[in-house]
UniProtKB/TrEMBL annotation:
Gene3D superfamilies: 2.40.10.500, Potassium Channel Kv1.1, Chain A
Protein name: BTB domain-containing protein
BTB domain sequence ranges: 105-167
Length: 257
């Protein structure tokens, strides 16, 4: 096959996702692109090349890489295609949404009497403590002391690295992340709660932060309690803080003298 504009000495060829042919025209020190649908050849790059001998189109990033014999390295030259949107997160999320038999689910979690199917390989890689719980379950459903909504949110994070949290799941999700050492999830939930601490929820949030070893959140809550102690002191007896004497002691010691 003879292509218009293709000269002798072409050593490198590659095809992009649109079927366009890229040519490393070594002797002419050019990179050409041939579009068979348009029947046209254009010069993609002809500057600062010494002796291009290899070429590769990365359809994911839309970047054209050139191996220049003189430099012995790949050079990012120009975008050849618009970047392809990544689909990994969505693909993994779909594993949780589709029928268990269709996705080869092989482990069952149980929360609030409701079952949710998942995949051992993903759980084992993302959360070793849950892997241990699976190993000790003897093939039975793994019961977790969380709300069903929290379980779904936690698994969604383990599959996609995306945190879905709201005021109905924040306390449970923080406790889950702390109990099972899911550090990134814990940081994200803690950040979410930090932005929403107020006088109405600070005592409950302080209690949760203490139990879940969320130090940043705990310090922020203590500062708010101290700053507004005159308003909050009447609520402390019914807040459940009495069940945590070490936290009460820490709060008292933090009060200005």
């Amino acid at each position: 096959m003879t292509l218009p504009g293709l000269y002798k000495g072409a050593l490198g060829l590659d095809i992009d996702a649109h079927g366009r042919l890229y040519i490393a025209n070594t002797e002419a020190k050019q990179i050409l692109r041939y579009d068979p649908r348009a029947g046209q050849v254009d010069t993609v790059c002809g500057v600062d090349l010494v002796k291009p001998t290899g070429i590769r189109v990365d359809s994911t990033s839309g970047v054209l890489f050139i191996a220049d014999l003189h430099a012995f390295k790949a050079i990012t030259v120009t975008k050849s295609l618009p970047p392809t949107p990544p689909t990994l997160n969505m693909d993994l999320a779909n594993l949780l949404c589709q029928d268990a038999e269709d996705t080869f689910s092989d482990v069952t979690f149980l929360a609030e009497g409701r079952e949710f199917m998942a995949h051992c390989a993903i759980i084992a890689q993302r959360c070793p403590k849950l892997k241990d719980a699976i190993n000790h379950s003897d093939g039975k459903p793994v019961a977790l002391e969380v709300s069903y909504k929290c379980l779904v949110s936690a698994l969604f994070f383990l599959y996609t690295d995306r945190c879905i949290v709201d005021q109905t799941t924040q306390h449970d999700l923080l406790a889950f992340a702390d109990r099972y050492d899911v550090c990134r999830l814990k940081c994200l939930v803690e950040e979410y709660m930090l932005k929403r601490v107020n006088l109405d929820n600070v005592l409950e949030t302080l209690r949760t932060a203490h139990r879940c070893h969320a130090d940043r959140l705990k310090k922020a809550c203590i500062k708010i309690v101290i700053r507004h102690f005159a308003i909050l002191q009447g609520k402390i007896p019914s807040s459940g803080l009495a069940e945590l004497p070490e936290l009460l002691t820490e709060l008292i010691l933090s009060m200005p003298k």
